[in-house]
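Following the same procedure, the fold was encoded as tokens, giving this record:
***
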Amino acid sequence: MKLLTHFMLIGALAFAGASHAQDYKRIASAGGDITEIIYALGAGDQVIAVDSTSGFPETVKDKAQIGYVRGLSAEGVLSIAPDLLIGADDMGPPNVIDNLRAANLDVAVAPLGHGADRVVTKIKFVGETLGLQSRADDLIADYSAKMAALADQVGALETKPKVLFILSMRDGAPIVGGAETSAHDIIELAGGVNVGQDFTGWKPMNSEALIAANPDVIVMSASHAENMGDDSAVLGRADVKLTNAGKSARLVKMDAMLLLGFGPRTPIAVAELMHHIHPHTH
């Protein structure tokens, strides 16, 4: 019995140590979606550094920088002496993550997810990592209620416009969002039909395919649209001019992280995109 008590005590101490380990004070966050969730859970004060995709809330811009989420350097991260590196599912490169773990830094990488449910998965992950499960449950309930209300609105729509998401231009060809991309998911959630759904991932679309797809609306991130110049850089293209979107000059520009990040602000993104592609909805 004494032996059993001894092991129970050791187990209790180990559990206490594990829960204490979640009390991070110097968090480095890589991935704008993960950073937003940390702040939404009220743990923003524990963040000391963020990556270049983290731009919301505004106060993150005052934090130290650790570079791009997929291109971190072990030296850069370790130089700010974090007690946790937490990041999006594509945080990397993998060898840097391995090196950081070998240096005894706690590293937490978000699990993969699909569609609107990926936000719930991420919130759970951050909540568990930081020991904030109760706040995470509240945030998930709020998010889920908002998304359910938006789904009801989409269900009541009589039409579903054809939407093309252009990520960027490469050698004059638009790189567009196919199935299994964040662009595809947000278009569907907002009551549109992704004209790129017959292929997967991000692919270049030639003029013939773009004309045949005949989108009613073209959506881009505001920053990429700005890099290309004014709207005529897209709407003035010979192939786009032959589409419904070109003829009616329907080009929607939205903040990239809001639109594609799939974080706590996704209900705002869905509502805004829905308003743009269904201008008569409120």
Observations:
- The first helix runs from residue 2 to 20.
- Residues 1-21 have pLDDT under 50 and may be disordered.
